[in-house]
Amino acid sequence: MYVVFARIEGEAAGEGSLAAFAVDGHLAGITLEERLAVLSPHTVGTWSLRDCRVPMHRLIGGPGQGIAIAMAVLELFRPTVGAATLGFARRAMSEAVARSLSPRRIQEADR
Fold it and tell me: C or N: which end of the chain has fewer Cβ atoms within 10 Å?
């Protein structure tokens, strides 16, 4: 399932014209062009929609609410992103300290 932000056909261009849709990832016309390898458990990459019809019952919120929905989701996840980066930093520090104190590392430095 993907959340896609798009302009509804016939709506005037602008920030208020964007809508959010829940799109089934198996829908005809969706092509994954490139998947990027990242540490997080998220699917990150480039994909395209070509001749892909998304029915109006897949609309999240209402027409023109896409930006408001995107900003609300970002606000919800902001604390978890901060917590995750803190966890990554702690792990990196722990690994760096352990490596710098390892006997093998000390012996190599004496050479």
Answer: C
